[in-house]
Amino acid sequence: MNRVSRRSLLAAAALAPVLAACGGREDKPQAPADGVPRGDLSVWLHQTRAYDAVFTPLVEKYTREFREVGVKPLFIPVAQLDTKLLTAFTGGSPPDVFRVGGWTIPGHARKGRLAPADQSLSSGFDKTAVDSLTYEGKAYGVPTDYTLCYLYYRRDRFAEAGLDPDKPPTTWEEVADYSKRLTSADGKKVGLQWILGNPQWTVMQLLALVKGKGGTILSPDGSRATMATDAGVEALRFYAGLGNAKLSNPLSAFGLFASGEAAMIVSGLFAMDLLPTLDKKLEFGKVYDIAPMPRFDAGPAVVPAYTWGWAVAEKSEIPHTAWHFIDYLQRPDVAAEQLRDAGSLTPITGWEKLEGADQKAIEIMAASAPDADFGPRTPVWAEMAKALTDAGDAVAHGKKTPEQAAQDFDQAMRLAL
Amino acid sequence: MTTVQLRIGRPATLSGQGQRRAEGRAGGLLALPAAIYFGVFWLLPFLSAAYLSFTRYDLAGMPEWVGLDNYRKMAEDPGFWNSAQVTLVYTAGSVIPSIVLALAIAVPLARPGRLNGVLRGLMMIPAVMPLVATSVVWRIIYADGGPANAVLGVAGFGPVSWLTDDGIALWALVIMVTWKHLGLFVIILTAGLQGLPPSVYEAAALDGAGPVRAFFSITLPLLRRTLLFVLVIAVVGSMQAFIPAFLLTGGGPAGATEVLPYYMWSNAFGFERMGYASAMAMVLLAVLVVLSLVQFRFLRGGGDD
Amino acid sequence: MTRVLLCLVVAVMLLPVGVMAVVASAPEGGGAEFSLFANIAEMFAGGDFPVYFRNSLILSFGIGLLDVLFAGASGYALARLRFRGKKVLFVLVVGTLALSPTVVMVPVYVIVHQLGWIDTYQGMIVPSMISAFGVFLVRQFALGLPEELLLAARVDGAGEVRIFATIAVPLLRPALLTLFLLQFLTQWDNLLWPLLVANDPALWPLPVGISQLQTEIGYDIRLMTTAALVTAVPPIVLMFFLQRYYVAGLTLGGVKK
């Protein structure tokens, strides 16, 4: 063996682990002629105890009804879901069906990992939710576990501070004002506490403020960052002005709210069920309550929203079966049961009329729905969210001025976009 | 002192062709499984990573050759420089105190005795607790009204925001990993100390050397191979550690605990920039190899390899 | 005096374990009653934890033993034998130590996938079965073996492999035991790789099982600490069991010398 061929052999060996996964499928699998779904489906989703209770019996029912289908669900902790999915995609062995955050869909779709959703399937859902799962005009998933943000507040803390627990703040100016009255002299008890250090929540919190001031995080076409504007800087300044970044709790702001140190937080529907598990004294309507997302005086209403989605891998050998199964999971009667038992809202058309365990939450959501905002949809969402978290945390900790943080964010995004 | 003859540590040599051939055969045989293993599971992936460091690869499709772009990007990326600096402080802050402490504990603890055996065992308990779960406990310890502040209070200091003060969070991390690793270092050093021939101590005692002098002039030089091992492992380990930051602080607050391996991880699996992450890994690899060589040179005495 | 200090150090180190025990003893939703056993029962209730325990034992013992065998052999060879490729192997080992696991994860995953080892025990075991750390550890200890013993055996005409097995291994016992213990612990604590490779919950080890206690906003603190406390028991038992052999290794070295 001469030197050259030995070297090229080495290069080929080095590339093998990378290239093995490449190469698409030549022929698209066809739907079976008889329309009967069959095959073994691998289904990956993150674990939530509440959803489990609905999902597991549903899978059993499905496989009883469609005997030629086997369903293998795999629950993955939410913190590791993306890593596991990415590794599997890259290694060429993704699951057929998986549940992902809507915000990751553009990234996956751009890389050709997802099969476009059946037109007939995605038509039965709330349009804004479906829009959030759309990339370049195609829907790549059907929405599940949809939520809009609420203002959560502690009635007991309000009463203590001489505020009327039945009159929660409706504007951000009021939130700031109430927060002052709710903050103790030593700063250990605060009014509104942001969820800091968490990319997803940072995006939602800052989205409300930036848009409320009339600005945007990214330009509408997603080509550049626009935080270094009056609206962006003002939003960051407001962000830094509320709460105490140094308060610490093993469960971040959720824990601080449960202990009463924080009197207000911004959160989604899922917290309704979650909070009482943190402390059994937390009784909805008595100790804590919810209100619609505040807006700035004279500013537009902005209600941050997100949805998870069911998606099918481009590489799946049985996409027909995969969509069939998803369709089954998303039926209106299941959606009703899911909302009642698991507090998880499937945004089917007409979801506003579903009955929830706590009707107030559904009513507020229905009223806020026209102002729902899913935030910037970009294939580099993770990078944007991280850069925004760095900016928000830096001003909250007083490490940077809002102007500086906004500029740094725009600069970081120039590299990423 | 000089009467003590030390004849350990030289490779056993027996001259002659036959012996060489025997050693060659046996060495090849004993080392073969490891050679195959490291070739398949480390060399091959390493070559891929080295190749990827010259490409843009977003974990889909084909890697795209970009030459030195990734390395150039590193130079102007504030995220990289911040994390490099954090890693440096974190490594120095966790390696030096934990080795000094481990040595101070291992010397008395290496002596035989029932109590010492039990204490050695107890010291290892933090090391055997799963990190996923211990990080939860440390979050409780570091919470505002938590035990860490209670201890400070007893000592007369005010409460501290352990995990949410950007000047302190890194040290909170250092305390946790020192707690976690101290037992390991102690047990490795103990094994090294127990391998030392007792006769040298007896000889030193006859020479009239006190315990402190005996430690510096006999124990420490004899222990240098073990010490080198612990040092290399500790430096490499803390420069590659990202799980503690991942679990305890998520890199925050405001990037204060964003160690380089965590930044690499975010780039690889968060932002799907595997090419850039690989380039950072190559730089880290180069730094670690150089550091290890320096440590080898520094700690290698007379005749060993 | 030294004893008192040592006891004090150990007491400080065990404080967090005490905190853990207190947290693990709290009842669901807060309160004062002692509920450690109720929490343990709740943890085991699903019937999954015994499976995770079994898998963790398989992985930890399997990888620990393989590592002792192979890293022991190659570490000794690197220290005491002259053979072709010795320098290359040593560079490979040190290089491996210095290479970030993050960037090799995807290539290793692809190799495991190519081998058809996704969702198998070998997929979890083989990629971790020899540690560079272990080779390095054994090499450092083997460099310190008294040469007279090896020489004497050679003069007696014993083969090199036999010298390794009958003379070096007993002398290296403290190092090999340390390696076993450390590798056992590493695997006992290994979350990421098994999570990536094992899709079948019947193959999951404890860390993967425990990580299921994460929730949308963090984790279930009470069950997580309970799990931590319970899963720490086997390694602790193992460690106290191995203690006896540490002392044996010591006296052996003393007598022979």
Q: What is the fold named in CATH at topology level of the largest domain in chain A?
A: D-Maltodextrin-Binding Protein, domain 2
Strand order of the largest sheet of chain C: 1-2
Overall helicity of chain A:
40-55%
H and E string of chain A: HEHEHEHEHHEEEEHHEHHHEHEEHHHEHH
CATH class of the largest domain in chain A: Alpha Beta
- Oligomeric state, counting identical vs distinct chains: heterotrimer
List how many beta strands of chain C DSSP finds: 2
* Low-pLDDT regions of chain C: 247-257
Task: Report the portion of residues of chain A in β strands.
Answer: 15-25%
Helices of chain A, by number, come to 17
- Which CATH C-level class of chain C is it? Mainly Alpha
Spatial separation of the terminal alpha carbons of chain A: 46 Å
Transmembrane segments (chain B): 29-54, 88-110, 122-142, 168-189, 227-254, 274-294
Membrane topology (chain B): Multi-pass membrane protein
Subcellular location (chain B): Cell membrane
Pfam families (chain B): BPD_transp_1
Any key phrases for this structure?
heterotrimer; B: 305 residues; mainly alpha; MetI-like fold; 13 helices; disordered N terminus; C: mainly alpha; two-stranded antiparallel sheet; 2% strand; transport (chain A); ABC transporter substrate-binding protein (chain A); signal (chain A); TAT_signal (chain A); maltose binding (chain A)
Question: Can I get a quick summary?
Answer:
The complex is a heterotrimer of chains A (417), B (305) and C (257). Chain A is of the alpha/beta class and 417 residues long.
Write up what this structure looks like:
The complex is a heterotrimer of chains A (417), B (305) and C (257). Chain A has 17 helices and 13 strands. With 417 residues, chain A is α/β, with parallel strands linked by helices. In chain A, the strands form three sheets. In chain A, strands 1, 2, 3, 4, 7, 12 and 13 form a seven-stranded mixed β-sheet that branches. In chain A, β5 (134-135) and β6 form a beta hairpin. Chain A is globular and about 70 Å long. Chain B folds into two domains: 2-52; 71-300, MetI-like fold (Orthogonal Bundle), CATH 1.10.3720. Chain B contains 13 helices and two strands. Chain B has helices spanning 17-52, 69-76, 78-109, 114-128, 131-141, 147-154, 169-194, 198-207, 211-222, 224-240, 243-248, 260-270, 274-299, and strands at 55-56, 64-65. A two-stranded antiparallel sheet of chain B has the order 1-2. In chain B, a hairpin with a 7-residue loop joins β1 and β2. The two termini of chain B are 25 Å apart. A two-stranded antiparallel ribbon of chain C has the order 1-2. Chain C is globular, with a radius of gyration of 22 Å. Chain C has a single domain (50-250), classed as MetI-like fold, CATH 1.10.3720.10. Chain C has 14 helices and two strands. Chain C is an all-alpha fold and 257 residues long. In chain C, α7 packs antiparallel against α10 (173-188). Helix content of chain C is 75%, strand content 2%. The two termini of chain C are 31 Å apart. The chains are: A alpha/beta (417), B mainly alpha (305), C mainly alpha (257). Chains in contact: A-B, A-C, B-C. The interface between A and C is medium-sized, with 40 and 29 residues.
